[in-house]
Structures are given as structure tokens and as C-alpha cells.
């Protein structure tokens, strides 16, 4: 059949277009299958954090699916535009639209078939290594994850079949609406010169204002329950502002450069500015997408890597001692049972600590006044109280307090108080730099421990009764300590579960699994976004190369040397493709305050660690970006015959 033969010939002759598309799609199919295989793995239901991890994976899969759909439609549009000239030639040689339909159908079916088979092979080949990394990150010991999942395979095939059917329908619909000569001239048709109208200026200013608004929200975000909502609102504003910045605002800026005759009428500047102006509408959207993908990947990596890097400190905060028991009243039977379990599991109870502490209360501090809040969305602190004698005993200190004095420890070192008014009474505050054996159920907001002169005043501060706690470390082999901790979690609760038991083993397991799962998702999302970013840059260079080839050839005919051509290309490509990574770095800088507030919800207060991780990840991203830029620029040069 002639159509199939021509379709196969088109695939072979246009490897520069179709091969990267096939490879990128195959990798995305492999990533999608791996996500599905993990989500649909029944073995994960056995771990304590299964529900939370599965929810995170589901959200990540939805986000990945959206990226895949947008990416494939975007790239398919570029590929279709480049092959239209070939279709136009066939049409003028006598092929009907029906013949062209079958030719496009054959090409798309081949692409889908190759991509699907290769993608599933990639997914099935790498799933074992990915699962090993998953198990390692989550510190899973006895969980066996199934490598092959028939359900994941069917879902992957169905998802990508739906995408390819949609792409095919779009291609055929466009083909039915154009004439042969339009197909022939489609690749030669460039973007119209955008007008520097009042609307463009207004849209550009509105975009910049929106971007600044997003930055402002990010900077002023406070670590309370509403931080997630505020952060997402800031993200929406930054996304809108970024697209406006790269389209309208960039056109306004380029027109300013054009009006500067001393700058514009120089060989390299003239070629760069004029070329960018004629295609800025198309470039702006693509460059904004590249910028946002880079920003999203770096933010995801910084957030998840920071949590993982600080997990040991989080474990120490959640469980300062190996076993902690909290109750309204610790009974002699509890002490006796703890000792009996120690003898049974061959461990010794050491470093025993007893203290009284209240349940937490949500609060804000306004103008030096502590106000109890019932709304978790507006509260900034989780406050607990305890007597001075208990603090001195567990910490080995010898502080003294007057009736109008408080010792205060804040989990966030930035909190500095000198005076505090509580229920109309003014207290002089002395801030503590350390509370090594602090207990209590501080979970999300900044913890504020108020240490009063005695038990009566500690209880009356917030009108919350004091609980008794009994904590200790274990001495013995690691396995013996683990066995004791597991038994203590069940047997020290008492008959009516009057005791609340926390063990370092449980806290470590939960944090390792939850943070490890988040890091795994962050890595998978970043790989997906960087892959799509690389392909967008590649096809952008290809489309720009075909659009610029005739222009550079004409300029060479009127005196532009090969060396000058290369210099002009470097200037234009550098100006176009460095802009997104620079703006992405700026986005990250303004995202860090909001990111720090979000991480405080996970009791991550180490801002120095966050900055170190952010700088490291940004450096890695820039290196990867420059590598992609270098490789794709070579493709651009070959297309315009500058190499």
C-alpha cells in the first residue's frame, strides 16, 4: 500500500523529528507504568503510612498525567507543522485527502506502537531498580513489592491509547480543513510581528503586578494551617504573571531595545532582537512553560530533599527518648509493667524522666498578648505549659522564677519574647535556648512551651489540666529494643487505653516512610518535568532552526560570514533560553519563605539546611539545563547550516 510505504519513508527521513518524540514518549510511558505499579501494589497496604503515601502518589500521578497530556499535544503540534510541507507536496502530486488521512494514520499508529512497546519495556526493565530505591528510601524491611502489575499495564495502555487517539483526531481534523498549498507554505509561515499596543503594555504591566502579588503572598506567608492555601494562591499568581511576563512584557522590552538605535543597529543585536520579535508570541508561551517546569521541579526537590535531610532531627523532636508514656495519672501498674517487659525482652531502662505537661492549645501573639484561638487556620502557635520543677528535673538545670516570670522555649529559634500578657496578667519572659527532653503533642505549628513557677500556676495559665509523663531510653541490642518498643506500644496502654505510648521505633518508621515516600514522588516528578523541559527545548530549537534557515541563508548571501552567523546564533539562543532559568532562580528565591512555612508544618525549622539544599539543587538544575541547551544548540546550528 502506497500510503504505508510513504509513511514509513517519512519516519526514516525525518528521524530528527520522530526519534526524540518516540524516545521521550517511551520514557513517559515507563514513568507512568512505574507510578501505577506502585499505587496498585497490594503489599504497600501493610505499612503504617500506606494511606498517606498512596494519597501523595495519587496526586503526583494526576499531576504527571497533566504534564504528559500537555507535553504530547504541544510536541505533536510542532511535529505536525514540520511534516505539513511533505504532505503538501504529496497532495500537489495527486494524492487525495483520503490518501493523506491514511498516510497520517499510518505514521501515528507506527509512532504509538513503537513508543508503547519501548515504553513498557523501559517500565518493566527499570521497575525493579525503582522499587529497590523506593524500599530503601522508605526503610522498608519486610515488605515485598510485586514487580509486574497487570492492572498497571492495562491502565497505562488505556491512558496512552486515549492520548494517541486524541492526537490522531486533531491531526486529521486539521488536515481536512486546509488546502494543499497551505500545507506547503505552513512551515514557511512565521509569526506576525506583535504590535506594541496599549493593550500589550497594559497586559504586560498587569502580568508583572500579578507576579509581584504572588511574590508578596509567598514572603508574608505564616506557618499556620492556612499556609497551604496561601501557597497555592501564590503559585497561581506566579503562573499567570510568568506567562504575561514572557509574552506581553517581553514584547514591550524588545520594542524598547529596538527603539534604542545605538543598541539595535549592531549586527548581532539586530538579528537577535528582530528574530525574537517576529516569533515572540510563540516563544513567550514556550519559554514560560520551560520556566515554570524548571521552577516546579526545583521546588519539589528542595521541599522533599530538605525533609529527608532533616529527618534525624525530626525523629529526635518527635521522640527524644526511646519510650514515652503520657496519662492523666501514671499508675504503679504501668511502672511495674514497663519493668516486666524489660526483663522479658532483655533490655535495661535507663535515663528515666518524669514530668507533668499540659495538652496543647492553639494561640496567637498579638502586641505582646497571648490569645487562645479555636481556629487552626489562623493560629500560629501550639502552646503547652509545665511547672519549673519538672523542667529543672528533666533538664538538670536550676532555674528560679518569680510569680510574674516565665521561662519560654520556642521550637522556632526566630521567636524572641521579652514580655507576654496572658489573661490580663503581664509576665517577664526569659527565652530558653534548649529543651532537650521536651514532650507533648506539638505536631504542625511552632511549639511554645511556657514554664511557670509551680504546678498550680502552670495549670491556671491556660486552664488546662497537667498530664503526667514517664519516659526512658533502652539499653540492649537493636533487635531487643525494637521488640520491647513494639510490645510496649500495645501492652503499656492499659486496659482502657488510658495511657498514650510513643516509641522512637514507631516515630522513626513513620517519618522514614512518609518523608521517603515524598522524596520518591519528588524525584519522579522532577524527572518527568526535566524530561519534558528538555524535549520542549529540543523541539523549540528544531522549529526555530527551520524558521531561521532561510533568513540566515539570505543574510549569508549578502555578506554575513559563517563565523558571524555562529556568533549571531549564539547571541539569539543564549538570550532566548537563559531567560527561563534566570527567572526560575528568582521564583525559587521568593518561594523559599513560603516553602519554609510549609515545612514548619512538618516540624522542620532548620532554615540553614533548607538554604543549603536549595542552593545545591539549583546548581544541579542549572548544570542539567546548560547541558540540554548545549546539545540542542548544535541541532539548531545544523538545521540553519551554520556548522
From TrEMBL:
It holds the Pfam family FtsX. Keywords: Cell membrane, Membrane, Transmembrane, Transmembrane helix, Transport. The chain crosses the membrane at residues 21-39, 59-79, 100-127, 147-170, 198-219, 231-257, 285-308, 514-539, 573-595, 607-628. It is found in: Cell membrane. It comes from the Bacteria. It is a multi-pass membrane protein. The keyword Transmembrane helix applies. One of its GO terms (cellular component) is plasma membrane. Residues 59-168 form the ABC3 transporter permease C-terminal domain. GO terms for biological process: transmembrane transport. InterPro entries: ABC-4_Integral_Memb_Prot, ABC3_permease_C, ABC_permease_BceB-typ. PANTHER family: ABC TRANSPORTER PERMEASE, ABC TRANSPORTER PERMEASE-RELATED-RELATED. Belongs to the ABC-4 integral membrane protein family. This is ABC transporter permease.
